[in-house]
């Protein structure tokens, strides 16, 4: 089984709400023309819009380019389980 890459830094560049360049992408969970869900530096990111497409994806370098009308970019941190919080 291939080990998932982990990035500690990310960079977000939004150009005219039509092009999003993003680094630090560890995994793409799903994509459709209205929403893209991905994992970036240990957090989940949702990109909402219309006519969204993934133009470029480099999983080794962790880079992605999304094109389309972008309305929302939302981060949510992964929640740690109770045992992970107790046994830091």
Tell me the layout of helices and strands.
Elements: E1 11-15, E2 19-23, E3 25-32, E4 35-40, E5 43-58, E6 63-77, H1 82-86
Antiparallel strand pairs: 1-2, 2-6, 3-4, 4-5, 5-6
Structure description:
The chain has 88 residues and is mainly beta. It starts with 10 loop residues before the first strand and ends with a helix. 6% of the residues lie in helices and 62% in strands. Strands 1-2-6-5-4-3 form a six-stranded antiparallel β-sheet, with no helix packed on it. A hairpin with a 2-residue loop joins strand 4 and strand 5 (43-58). It has one helix at residues 82-86, and strands spanning 11-15, 19-23, 25-32, 35-40, 43-58, 63-77.
Comma- or semicolon-separated keywords:
1 helix; 62% strand; globular; mainly beta; 6-stranded antiparallel beta sheet
Provide the number of structural domains.
1
- C-alpha end-to-end distance: 26 Å
Largest sheet: 6 strands, antiparallel
Query: Roughly how much helix do the residues carry, as a percent range?
Result: under 10%
| Overall body shape | globular
**CATH topology-level name:** Immunoglobulin-like
Backbone CA Rg = 14 Å
Secondary structure tally, helices = 1
CATH architecture: Sandwich
Q: Mean of the pLDDT scores? A: 87
Q: Give the CATH level 1 class.
A: Mainly Beta
Total strands: the figure is 6
- Name the helix and strand elements from N-terminus to C-terminus, one letter apiece: EEEEEEH
Low-confidence stretches: none
Q: Which class of secondary structure composition applies to the elements?
A: mainly beta
Proportion of strand residues: over 45%
């Amino acid at each position: 089984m291939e080990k998932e890459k982990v990035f500690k830094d990310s960079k977000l560049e939004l150009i005219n709400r039509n092009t999003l360049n993003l680094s630090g992408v560890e995994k793409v969970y799903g994509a459709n023309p209205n929403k893209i869900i991905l994992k970036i530096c240990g957090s989940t990111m949702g990109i909402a819009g219309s006519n969204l497409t993934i133009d470029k994806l480099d999983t080794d370098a962790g880079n992605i380019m999304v094109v389309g009308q972008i309305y929302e970019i939302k981060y949510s941190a992964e929640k740690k389980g109770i045992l992970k919080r107790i046994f830091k």
